[in-house]
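Duplicate of earlier report; Putative hydrolase or acyltransferase of alpha/beta superfamily input re-posted below.
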Amino acid sequence: MTARQSLITDSVHVNGVDLAYVDKGEGDPVVLLHGFPDSHYLWRHQIDPLVEAGFRVIVPDLRGFGESSKPQEIDAYDMRTIVNDVVGLTQHLGIGKAHIVGHDWGAAIAWMYAFLMPRRVDHLAVFSVGHPGVFAMPTIEQRRASWYMLFYQFPGVSEQLLRRNGWRLFKEIMGAEGDYQRYPRELAKPGALTSALNWYRANRSPEAELRVERNFPPVLAPTLGVWSTGDKAMLEEGMTGSAKFVKGPWRYERVENSSHWIPLDQPELTTTLLKGFLGTEKPAAMPTRRRRL
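Output:
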């Protein structure tokens, strides 16, 4: 990533990896989490407007992406491990409670962060990817849409096929969506493609589907779910069906004229939605714990 394409301000060693991150502004903290095959740079259109709106904005390169560490082991990308990366980063920055925003895999991490550690989440905003409870039993239509997840399961083979003939297959899968011109350059860096694909191998393999937890704690934070009509990978039912897992206030926004990459295709709308939602609702009551006698 060139200097022009990097907004990174610092890095920290947490949970066994080095995480590069952006930390700008003052006020209530907002953590923005990217997905595949992005980096913090996905959120470049939202960072400064949120800072100007009075938020402290933290945007990490999640493990395996951007300027952060890229372990090559599949089990290094278990979702609980990555959630702990975010916990470690926020603790390092002295943040106890934050607004959590995620897109794609970042949304999956945001969901898990919210229901595993409700006291650390103020508001939750998820783009494109719904609650893992919905995706635990995908419809055949969703399986067709996310066929590429199965293709990514073959270590070594997937890498060779995606790179072959000037990244032809990868470019066909991506189309002209997201930062499609930049992705091959980033994934060509040592270890980058394998680390990115390992997110799928650790969490969306057929074996992983058999291990899915069925009893999810409710999400207590006010939650905004955003899905776009041009999304070729995720169906609307994945987001609308997430409402049943949210105990706090739920809001759904359906975005027109956007691919899966809503923060890039509709940057002003994304910023407007976030500024209008974060901090505007009260969370559901926290469950009380009985004291042991």
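The chain has one domain: 10-276.

Merging into the original ticket.
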